[in-house]
Amino acid sequence: MSAPPDRRRVQLFVTCVVDQLFPDVGESVVKVLSALGADVEFDTDQTCCAQPAFNSGFWDDARPVARRLLGQLDPSKPVIVPSGSCAAMIRNYYRELFADDPVNLSRVNRLRPHIYEFTEYLHEFFDLDMISRLLSDSPSKDGVAFHEACHTKRELGVDAQPKALIDMMPGVRRVNLPQAEVCCGFGGTFSIKYPDISGAMLSDKLDCIEASGANVVAACDSSCLMHIHGGLRRRGSAVRTKHVAELLAERLKQPA
Amino acid sequence: MQPRTTQFRQNSASALADERIQRNLAGLYSGFHSARIDASSATADWESLRARGHEIKSHVIENLDYYLNTLADSVERAGGHVFFAKDAEDASSYVVEVASKRGIDLVIKSKSMLSEEMGLNERLEAEGMEPVETDLGEYIIQLAGDTPFHIIAPAIHKSREEVSDLFTERLGAPRYEDIEDLTKEARRQLRQKFLAAGMGISGANFLVAETGTVALVTNEGNGRMVTSMPKVHIAIAGMEKVVPSIEDLAMFLRLLIRSATGQMLSSYVTAVTGPRLHDEEDGPEEFHLVIVDNGRSRILADEHLRESLLCLRCGACMNACPVYRKVGGHAYGWVYPGPIGAIVSPMLTGLSDGKDLPYASTLCGACKEACPVKIDMPRMLLYLRKELTQGDSYPEHRSADAAERLAVKGWRASASSDAAMRATNLAARLGQALLSRGGEISKMPGPLSGWTDHREFPRAQKPFRSRWPLGDDAARRPRDER
Ligand code: SF4
């Protein structure tokens, strides 16, 4: 076993969706990590984990993009990923993608234990008390429904961590979300290939969210939130979507 | 059954538009799906059972020749006949031959998905014989000239009113309002057939290699009558149905029944071994086991897909699947629907014909989580997508979609460098200025128009990469209202 990684030096893999569509989520992640005293490195040359091409069957096109990221991530420091499905892509599916490439496969295997979904990292390296001391009572009182994003929960086994974080946030009440573990229907290119099936699944998800009485729906994956958000807006619903990192960041005490 | 896997899009659209089907499908979540979760949570050793089930079935599939030979020896020792059929045609002809030899024209059947696969009823009818399904759901399907909607509950898409109409029209029965009265009517009708039939055809949930036993799980007891009343019993089974021993059978029954209906035990478990012997009072005079390949060895030969042969046909992955719960069983166009169907149906009937099936999944993983033998369906769906796109192992099934290939090339270019990401972002922001002024986009052109039929499209922002390194201000900048 190598020496335990220094928790204070981390690399951010921000993901293409957060980079291009939800940069606030990336900023929130950095704010929270910085408040905890971590030194966040970010390589602006990073692009995408290659999941869109991989999931569509274009493995030969996915490989160079994945290889690029693999070369940028340092297997000796925690990699923080604010998206369950991109973290799962690197941790679980790079092995499939590089099954016939021993050099990159061994790199994948060295990197895998250092890939952390954002809330998973917070749990592994900090106690809740320490995080809780950084938070102040937020002006807004939120009823938060937590959507158990499929890859966060089933591929990474991350479920208790974000819920514990939400439960400890001042001014937040976590409401019961019926069928919280059911897919929102996004599925990446699935929502483009089968927009009507995806839309019908989304509609069920929105019904459950509205029935929960929440004013915020949170998750650890901006892609699912993008899909849910698009559906809520189309319905004219007042429910907002937030990444767990945003919920945390907006409650951080301002430094004195 | 004639494959209609090419029609996934049309058939799923009509299921989505059918309110009654949507209601019945929604009932699967609170019904079978929740019952399975309750039953498995109430089973203390559930996770180790699943692991053991996976291990034993994998061992059998890796050593299939050995177990099939042992099985055949055991069946013959018990006085039965064994026939290995290479395909549906082969298997059906064998059944017809046995029936003709004994001058049998009335055949009773218990539920068998393999029989649907073979189109056995159509074949028997073409030979002038009368096959009668005795499982209530299958009976309804047969009367309606329909195909199964679900492997455990074949008529789940039919309402009580529809069944009532069907019975009036086809059987001349009075119009019953009650499910109980409908069931009684079916029993009355079927009793005559049970008494008069010369042959019983059953499927098999499991075949026990060491004893030659055929095990059937039912809740109606019809399986028991089919296998014991007529003078000839033919069991038909896919070659993957074999388990080594009676102890293994006991374990697989626990896995199967809890996963299928959420019961701890089904009302009936029937285990038959060979024909009636001279000192026995019940059972058929003649017993045949037809072991069917029908494309399965193609799956066996592919190390990436072999795992799908572990399937117990419990239906849990269908009930768990949010896509199945929207499109239903007919959309998949063949006998096996849902996540496992999206893998085996294309492999058994033609991969490129079924090219829409492996994509009909969000890869949410609910199927894998539900499966009693831990089959990794998402991994196999991904593999099939790769094969359809690249054709590494199945070049003849490579299904080119020029527009998608082009889109992927575009993606690849945009993900090739920091500069390319910035350029893509700029282009997106310029483009969206034409489509909407602030806020989300309500109408996207081209292949993204389907998306905006149901939801707003997000707007590209000034990217994170351009905000890096974040100044103290950046971190405190007021957040966009989203
Ligand atoms: S794949 Fe698993 S869950 Fe689906 S029918 Fe087969 S055994 Fe059941």
Labels describing this entry:
heterodimer, A: 256 residues, alpha/beta, Rossmann fold, 2 domains, four-stranded parallel beta sheet, globular, B: 482 residues, six-stranded parallel beta sheet, four-stranded mixed beta sheet, 50% helix, binds iron/sulfur cluster
- Integer-rounded radius of gyration of chain B: 26 Å
As an assembly, this protein is: heterodimer
Helix content, binned percent of chain B: 40-55%
The largest sheet of chain A is:
4 strands, parallel
Write down the overall mean pLDDT of chain A.
Answer: 95
At the first level of CATH, the class of one domain in chain B is: Alpha Beta
Structural class by SSE content of chain A: alpha/beta
Q: What is the CATH architecture annotation of one domain in chain B?
A: 3-Layer(aba) Sandwich
* Number of structural units classed as domains of chain A: 2
Structure description:
- The complex is a heterodimer of chains A (256) and B (482).
- With 256 residues, chain A is α/β, with parallel strands linked by helices.
- Chain A has two domains: 9-123, no CATH class; 137-250, 3-Layer(aba) Sandwich (Rossmann fold), CATH 3.40.50.
- Chain A contains 14 helices and eight strands.
- Chain A has helices spanning 16-20, 23-35, 51-55, 59-72, 84-97, 102-111, 118-125, 128-133, 150-155, 160-168, 190-193, 195-212, 222-235, 244-249, and strands at residues 9-12, 39-41, 79-81, 115-117, 142-146, 172-175, 216-219, 240-243.
- In chain A, the strands form two sheets. Chain A has a four-stranded parallel β-sheet, sandwiched between helices. A four-stranded parallel β-sheet of chain A has the order 6-5-7-8, with helices on both faces.
- Helix content of chain B is 50%, strand content 10%.
- In chain B, the strands form two sheets. In chain B, strands 1-10-7-4-2-3 form a six-stranded parallel β-sheet, with helices on both faces. In chain B, strands 8-5-6-9 form a four-stranded mixed β-sheet, with helices on both faces.
- Among the domains of chain B are: 43-296, 3-Layer(aba) Sandwich (Rossmann fold); 418-467, no CATH class.
- Chain B is an alpha/beta fold.
- At the A-B interface, helix 1, helix 2, helix 3, helix 4 and helix 9 of A face helix 1, helix 17, helix 18, helix 19 and helix 20 of B.
- The structure holds iron/sulfur cluster.
- Iron/sulfur cluster binds at residues 259, 311-317, 340, 370-373, 375 of chain B.
